[in-house]
Amino acid sequence: MYPAWLQIALDLIGALIRLIGMVLFGLGAGWVVLDLLRKPEQAWQVQIAVYLGFVGLGIGMAHFLAPAALGGFGIGLGVAIFLWGLPKKEKTEEEK
After folding, report:
1. What number of helices (H) and strands (E) belong to the chain?
2. How far apart are the first and last CA of the chain?
3. What is the pLDDT of residue 5?
4. Which residues contact 66 (CB under 8 A, 6 or more apart)?
5. Cα 27 from Cα 24, distance rounded (Å)
6. By three-state DSSP, how is residue 10 classified?
7. What pLDDT score does 1 carry?
8. Mean of the pLDDT values across residues 24-31?
9. Looking at the domain assignment, is residue 3 inside a domain?
10. What confidence tens digit (pLDDT) does each residue in 29-85 have?
């Protein structure tokens, strides 16, 4: 078997990789959801399906994932909402 220090190191590396992966997955999922919800040419049924799918994803992740992985997903989703979800300020003539 592995020595105890190596097992602890591998567990730590695995947890960090899982956290980083879930942050990146949260960023990607947040961008896709915001992109699909903002398209005005889509039917309202598509927007409802995207919303319900995203809620279902959150419920499934809350049930099956470790708390740290779910926290990483929440961090990634929050960053995606702040990056792409907030309205943009229009530039004035002085700034151009």
Report:
1. 3, 0
2. 65
3. 93
4. 18
5. 5
6. helix
7. 77
8. 91
9. no
10. 989 888 888 887 778 888 888 889 989 998 999 899 888 888 999 999 999 989 888
Nearest to 82 by CA among 11, 27, 43, 35: 27
Specify if 95 maps to a domain.
no
CB-CB neighbours of 30 under 10 Å: 22
Number of domains the chain contains = 1
Q: Which residues contact 73 (CB under 8 A, 6 or more apart)?
A: 22, 23, 25, 26, 29, 61, 65
d(CA 91, CA 55): 35
* pLDDT(87) > 80: no
Q: Which helix (H) or strand (E) holds 67?
A: helix 67-80
Enter the pTM of the model: 0.77
Is 28 inside a domain boundary? no
For residue 26, count CB atoms less than 10 angstroms from its CB and return exposed for 0-12, middle for 13-18, buried for 19 or more. buried
Instruction: Please check whether residue 7 lies inside any domain of the structure.
Output: no
Residue ranges making up the domain that contains 70: 46-83
pLDDT of residue 95: 64
